[in-house]
Specification:
The complex is a heterodimer of chains A (378) and B (306). With 378 residues, chain A is α/β, with parallel strands linked by helices. Chain A has 2 domains: 203 residues, Rossmann fold (3-Layer(aba) Sandwich); 154 residues, Response regulator (Rossmann fold). Chain A is 41% helix and 21% strand. In chain A, strands 6, 7, 8, 9, 10, 11, 12 and 13 form an 8-stranded mixed β-sheet that branches. A 5-stranded parallel β-sheet of chain A has the order 2-1-3-4-5, with helices on both faces. In chain A, α5 runs parallel beside α6 and α8 packs parallel to α9. With 306 residues, chain B is an all-alpha fold. Chain B has a single domain, classed as ABC transporter involved in vitamin B12 uptake, BtuC. Chain B is 74% helix and 3% strand. Classes of the chains: A alpha/beta (378), B mainly alpha (306). The interface between A and B is large, with 40 and 48 residues.
């Protein structure tokens, strides 16, 4: 009997009929190879952990590697929407890829749930009713870093970021909440690995602190060279350069650095404690903020599936907007532009045994939305 | 802008140039002697860094790590030459590009399979940690000074090898006329394997040295590979001396461009605009240099006229 039902189900799925209550088909496009693979792998693993824990068999997830290339991401999205007929897209890590994929996808009646990238262009006038960001708007963590730097009495900061949209968003976000003077402002090249020239300028600038946004390998290189340069100024940055995946590669050079994040493994709520424990048990490593974002994205989707059928887009959209799920971050809700309203914490890099990790030392911004929500008209 | 800052930037440019030389020396030798375009040279650089990180992590000794990098890179180079590259000498450049591009993918995914997707840790040795005080109040990281010195020593050694030894004579002869040297009784295939392993060892060494101050991750070799190609084109393909001069030139142009161009634009633009324009132009500086050199010397600075 069971077998028969299963075969019926398989046959129906094979026919590809859009029958009611057939479950949700998710297309995940994320970066699984090349230099930025660690981020995509964390998002995927967090997402799949939540799917597994839900015990639901009516979620089908197709996972594809975008190789961090916008053209490949667009091809994959076209294939998933047109050939695979997915209901929901998710997974993109990088803002430039998100800009290439999301506007076209959401206009083809597909939901997009962003587990990471939150470019300002999709938060303001370019917002869309089918686009939900479960992570943050790009500026958020930098805004919190600016607020924290001011609260610590830092008054002459040197700031730097790569010369691309998210880098420009970063410096804009920092300056929005920072009240002191800037002793210097630099854009570096995307993918740059040697920062000797920038470090020489920091040394000569007379700054009292340094703020930088250099995600992934760029941050590892910068911090190692910073520690070796003999410059002894406090460093503030967003969590992207201090997440669990890269801290071990930076080593002691990162100890004591303050970084801002909407998530930390020591946020005190039962969901988060269970998440950290089960992620470690499943994959044998500590989760990063990217993993928490993937986990929350899947749980948001699952919560909406419990409340509405994906075939009824309006009802499913309302169910997503309600954000009725237990987030690893504690309180979580969507603002009018479908971006999170959440607390952003300040963490410090510490050493636990021989593992480098973060602990929360302060709250940077409470119930924070973003600067673009007012421009969004849905 | 103070004189001290300018001198520090000159040192930075020199250090970057020396590193580029280690990378491009092998590339230009392989191209000059065998006529082979080897895109997998960047993967060898990555193998050097991963071998150093793995061995230094396991033993705690940076020197052992460096040794492992040299050995692993030379072995990988020899293996690749024997199994794949050897079949490509008589093919045209497109086949070589295709095959060595495939090697990049194989090495990258193989490294990910072995070491995982997250960057590895490799730190500078304790003795070279922190800054050194130089005369005239210049403060400069010890490790970068060491890179400059070691790089110059390696360059001198390479010149001596090419100019003074029997192997060097054969390499130069192979460059000039590979059929004739074969006819004279030199085992050309053994020579090719040796040159390939030597070039690979230099790249692996560069990877290990740089790995200590940068991120040891999959794909770290490809950006350097592009710069190395720029260097050998500017220097003249096949010329070690050209590779040396061009490396220093590219290192200085890149570093000083990143430093001076935003300042230059700052004299007539507002700060953030000058930053964006200056940075964008700085990333083009070495390619503009390459174009300018090629206009006046189409075979590169030290290239043989054809």
């Amino acid at each position: 009997m069971k077998l028969k039902a299963l075969m019926m189900g398989a046959a129906m799925a094979a026919l590809g009929t859009a029958a009611a209550a057939e479950g949700v088909k998710v297309g995940m496009i994320t970066t699984l190879s090349g230099g930025g693979a660690g981020l995509g792998i964390d998002v995927r693993d967090g997402f799949m952990l939540a799917v597994k824990q839900s015990g639901r068999s009516d979620i089908e997830v197709l996972i594809e590697d975008d190789q961090r290339k916008p053209d490949i991401a667009v091809q994959l999205a076209d294939k998933m929407i047109q050939a695979e007929d997915v209901d929901v897209l998710t997974g993109i890590i990088w803002s430039n890829l998100a800009m290439a994929v999301v506007p076209a996808a959401v206009n083809q009646d597909v939901f997009y749930l962003s587990p990471n990238a939150g470019p300002s262009a999709l938060a303001g006038q370019g917002c869309h009713q089918n686009y939900f960001n479960v992570a943050w708007q790009n500026d958020n963590l930098h805004e919190a870093a600016g607020a924290y730097a001011s609260s610590q009495g830092l008054a002459n900061t040197f700031i730097l970021a790569p010369n691309y949209p998210a880098g420009q968003d970063a410096l804009t976000g920092f300056k929005r909440f920072y009240e002191g003077e800037l002793s210097g402002e630099l854009y570096t090249q995307l993918g740059q690995t040697d920062y000797a020239a920038e470090l020489a300028q920091i040394r000569a600038s007379g700054a009292d602190s340094v703020f930088f946004f250099l995600p992934g390998g760029m941050g590892i290189s910068f911090l190692k060279q910073y520690a070796d340069s003999g410059i002894d100024l406090p460093v503030v940055g967003p969590a992207f350069s201090f997440d669990q995946g890269i801290l071990q590669a930076v080593g002691a050079a990162a100890l004591g650095v303050k970084n801002t994040s909407q998530w930390s493994k020591d946020i005190d709520n039962p969901t988060n404690a269970a998440f950290v424990e089960s992620f470690q048990a499943e994959y044998g490593r500590l989760p990063s903020l990217y993993a928490s974002q993937g986990f929350d994205t899947a749980n948001l989707l699952i919560s909406a599936m419990g409340a509405a059928d994906v075939g009824d887009m309006a009802a499913f959209r309302d169910a997503l907007r309600a954000a009725d799920f237990a987030s690893t971050r504690g309180d979580f809700s969507f603002g009018p532009n479908h971006h999170p309203v959440q607390d952003i914490y300040v963490r410090e890099v510490i050493q636990e045994g021989d593992v480098f990790t973060n602990k929360i030392v302060a709250t940077g911004l409470t119930g924070h939305s973003d600067a673009y929500a007012g421009d969004c008209k849905m | 802008m103070s004189a001290l800052l300018f001198i520090e930037q000159l040192l930075n440019g020199l250090q970057f140039g020396v590193m580029l030389f280690l990378m491009s020396a092998g590339l230009t030798l392989i191209f000059g002697v065998m006529g082979l375009i080897n895109l997998a040279h960047g993967s060898i650089y990555m193998i050097g860094a991963f071998a150093a990180a793995a061995v230094a992590g396991a033993t705690g000794s940076f020197v052992l790590g460096l040794g492992a990098a040299l050995a692993a890179a030379a072995a990988a180079g020899a293996l690749v030459e024997l199994t794949v590259i050897r079949r490509l000498y008589d093919r045209d450049h497109l086949d070589q590009v295709l095959a060595t591009f495939a090697l990049i993918l194989i090495f990258s995914e193989g490294t990910r399979w072995l070491f995982g997707s997250f960057p590895l840790f490799l730190d500078v040795p304790d003795a070279l940690r922190g800054p050194a005080e130089l005369p005239f109040g210049i403060v400069y990281p010890r490790y970068r000074l060491a890179i400059i010195l070691i790089g110059l020593v390696v360059a001198a050694g390479l010149f001596a090898l090419i100019a003074k030894t029997r192997i060097g004579v054969r390499i130069r002869a192979g460059e000039a006329d590979r059929e004739m040297i074969g006819a004279l009784g030199v085992d050309i295939s053994k020579l090719y394997t040796l040159v390939f392993a030597l070039g690979a060892a230099l790249a692996g060494f560069a990877g290990a040295m740089v790995g200590a101050i940068q991120s040891v991750e999959v794909g770290m070799g490809e950006p350097v590979l592009i710069l190395a190609f720029v260097v050998i084109v500017i220097g003249g393909i096949g010329s070690i001396r050209g590779a040396f001069v061009a490396s220093i030139l590219v290192g200085l142009t890149d570093t000083l461009g990143r430093f001076l161009l935003p300042i230059l634009f700052g004299t007539f633009l507002d700060a953030s605009g000058a930053n964006i324009v200056g940075t964008a132009l700085a990333s083009m500086a070495i390619y503009i240099l390459m174009a300018a050199v090629l206009i006046f010397r189409p075979t590169g600075l030290f290239g043989a006229a054809t």
